[in-house]
Amino acid sequence: MALSKLEKRIRIKRRVRGKISGSSELPRLSVYKSNKEIYAQLIDDNSGKTLASASSREKGVDANGTKSEVSAAVGKAIAAKAIAAGIENIVFDRNGFVYHGRIKALADGAREGGLKF
């Protein structure tokens, strides 16, 4: 029997998370997208803490435009928060989602904001 879309994403997520993890010097930028919103977190996996977060639901993020434009704005917002916290280099975790569309727009926005990965 074929796997559902969610089961495929979770399988990919587990495989990727076995290879990458974040630390306080090199945190993991984890991305989650729903049908309407997009969320990003900088995570230190050693201590299990979230260092910074941004989402399309925040007031500081411009939520006008297409979903890809909103994703790029979230990427710039997380980059600004990371730079303010003294973080420049990160590890990108696409969370099992295909690196295309909104995920790519968020990553490009984070790069424009000054993050390196």
Automatic annotation (TrEMBL):
GO MF: 5S rRNA binding; structural constituent of ribosome
One record GO biological process: translation
GO cellular-component term (any): cytosolic large ribosomal subunit
Keywords noted in UniProt: Ribonucleoprotein, Ribosomal protein, RNA-binding, rRNA-binding
Gene3D superfamilies with a match to the protein in the record: 3.30.420.100
Family matches, as Pfam families: Ribosomal_L18p
Entry-linked InterPro entries: Ribosomal_L18, Ribosomal_uL18_bac-type, Ribosomal_uL18_bac/plant/anim
Keyword Ribonucleoprotein among record annotations: yes
Superkingdom field: Bacteria
Statement: the UniProt record of this protein carries the keyword Ribosomal protein: yes
Subunit structure: Part of the 50S ribosomal subunit; part of the 5S rRNA/L5/L18/L25 subcomplex. Contacts the 5S and 23S rRNAs.
Similarity section: Belongs to the universal ribosomal protein uL18 family.
PANTHER family found in the cross-reference section: 39S RIBOSOMAL PROTEIN L18, MITOCHONDRIAL (PTHR12899), LARGE RIBOSOMAL SUBUNIT PROTEIN UL18M (PTHR12899:SF3)
Function: This is one of the proteins that bind and probably mediate the attachment of the 5S RNA into the large ribosomal subunit, where it forms part of the central protuberance.
NCBIfam families named in the record: L18_bact
Protein name in the entry: Large ribosomal subunit protein uL18
Species the sequence originates in: Chryseobacterium taiwanense
The gene coding this protein: rplR
